[in-house]
Target: Flagellar transcriptional regulator FtcR
Amino acid sequence: MLDKGLILIVEDEPAIASILEAYLIRDGFRTVSASDGEIALRHHSMLSPDLILLDVKMPKYDGFEVLARIRRDSNIPVIMISALAEDLDRLSGLRLGADDYVIKPFNPQEVVARVNAVLRRTRNNAANVAIRFENILVDFDAHAAFTDTGDERQLLPLTLSEFRILAHMIRRPTHAFPRNDLLDACLPQSDALVRTIDTHIANLRRKIEVSGGPSGLFPAVRGIGYRLAEPR
Model:
């Protein structure tokens, strides 16, 4: 099953939350819901969702307060949802750091389209950073990967396909990636068979271990594909 990420739906009207949940799940997302601002902040802290759909009018903390608190230490994408169409409310949300804004009543399909668009944009923007997992470092700006033992940083001799797979998986190291997802994300416009991913994974595992990286990476997930590392 396609897994496009976890969406936190912050909405105090159960009917609206259920509609959004149904459409997002149908599009390949996982969802979790919060009915007030306090629960929303707790879910954000504990679950690290990929995007938040954030209603403005809520109990305990309204959407603007929730957004302000999140933005103190997180750049997670946020789409605000409100029945208030006044420009002042829209500008308040954007000024606090919202990535988009949806006015009620809305078409749920449009909301899903906006979720996909914001995630594409923010994930592309995040490509110009370095991400570390254990002693593996992927530098997206340099388009290179290294093992870093503290005393020495060694460049991993990866092919383009191997680098793309590692860069794709390191963002969510314990996530179970289906082979088809890895093929689509890392070998676009390729006629390669799905099982080609197995060869690339085996080569990645070997090259990382030879270069002083951790052993046992890329465990197979039966019936699905691979993850970078087992959950702890």
